[in-house]
Amino acid sequence: MNVAQLIPLADTWGMHGDDVGAGWMALMMIVMVLFWGAVIFGIVWLVRGTVAARPSSSAAPESALQILERRFAEGDISPEDYEARRRVLINGSSR
């Protein structure tokens, strides 16, 4: 069987005819856009998930004094407690 004999056989499958209407073409385009949109969304979702799960190496840990100042600013401790704890951190003793 040579190539010239296969061409009429391919035409009987509706591959080269005008039997695909505008409705099918529109549906195929919509499905293609949805497919590639889902692929792109999936890639972005995976990349953002792996970046967010990675710990940030640029952020230095807070010192004890910074933690104390933050807790005082948030209202977690009283001014008297702040002063007492600050003295301990700076001087090294509670007296």
What would your notes on this structure say?
Helix 3 runs antiparallel to helix 4. The radius of gyration is 35 Å and the shape is rod-shaped. The mean pLDDT is 80. The protein has four helices and no strands. The longest helix is centred in the middle third of the chain and has 32 residues, at 22-53. It has helices at residues 3-12, 22-53, 64-74, 79-91. It starts with a helix and ends with a helix.
List key phrases describing it.
mainly alpha; single chain; 95 residues; 4 helices
Quick synopsis:
The chain has helices at 3-12, 22-53, 64-74, 79-91. By secondary structure, it is mainly alpha-helical.
Largest sheet features: none
Overall geometry:
rod-shaped
SS-based class: mainly alpha
- The rounded Rg comes to 35 Å
Total E-strand runs: 0
Following the backbone from N to C, one meets helices and strands in this order, namely HHHH
Number of helices, where a helix is a run of at least 4 consecutive DSSP H or I residues? 4
The average pLDDT score comes to 80
Helix content: 55-70%
Strand content: under 5%
Unreliable residue runs: none
N- to C-terminal distance: 103 Å
